Amino acid sequence: MQPGAVQPGAVQPGGKGRPTPKRSEKQGRRGPVAPPPLTRREAAQRQKEKAREARTRIRQGALAGEERYLPKRDAGPVRKLVRDVVDSRRNMGVLLLPVALVFVLAQLSGSRALLDFALTLWMAGLLVVVLDVALLAGTIRRRVRKAFPDVDRTRGHIFYGLLRSTVFRRWRMPAPVVRPGEKV
Questions:
Q1: Measured torsion, CA atoms of residues 40, 42, 46, 47, in degrees rounded to the nearest 10
Q2: pTM across the whole model
């Protein structure tokens, strides 16, 4: 044996103490590799399918509220708290769309009495929504400052909560995890 040569099976000082893994073990491949595409069309189709699967996985993860799949707008512990605060109460903002529809239908009907009623309903709805928004904004501000005292500005979080409060509950993304009336 030559001087400085290492005996097989001997651990060198400063070495890692284990054999180098094979590439297939490291990459975690299971089974045979798919054959390469034969045509450009087949390659494009495979790429589309991969992209579709990735979009589906991301959408399902975002709907489930998994943090790593959420868009930047929805990510973070402060935004989760804001979502939970909004989802734990009944919000009047979702009533604006149906009341607006009543108002439009009253205009189309041509009846002055129906139009007056719809206008009164619209104004009352706006007043209720403004009061609800003020209450919600105060609640969000208070809860965020209490839970996260190091957060300087709450304005963006308040606007996020207000936008979420105007969306019908079943259409909210990420999906609500707190039921109305539950404590957050």
A1: 20
A2: 0.70
Distance, CA of 149 to chain centre: 24
| Cis peptide preceding 98, ω within 30 of 0 | no
Ordered DSSP codes for the chain: --TTPPPTTPPPTTS-SSPPPPHHHHHT--SPPPPPPSSHHHHHHHHHHHHHHHHHHHHHHHHHT-GGGS-TTT-SHHHHHHHHHHHTS--GGGGHHHHHHHHHHHHHH--HHHHHHHHHHHHHHHHHHHHHHHHHHHHHHHHHHHH-TT----HHHHHHHHHHHTS-GGG-SSPP-S-TT---
For residue range 75-107, list pLDDT tens digits in order.
Answer: 899 999 999 999 999 999 898 889 999 999 999
Q: Distance between CA atoms of 43 and 72, rounded to whole angstroms?
A: 32
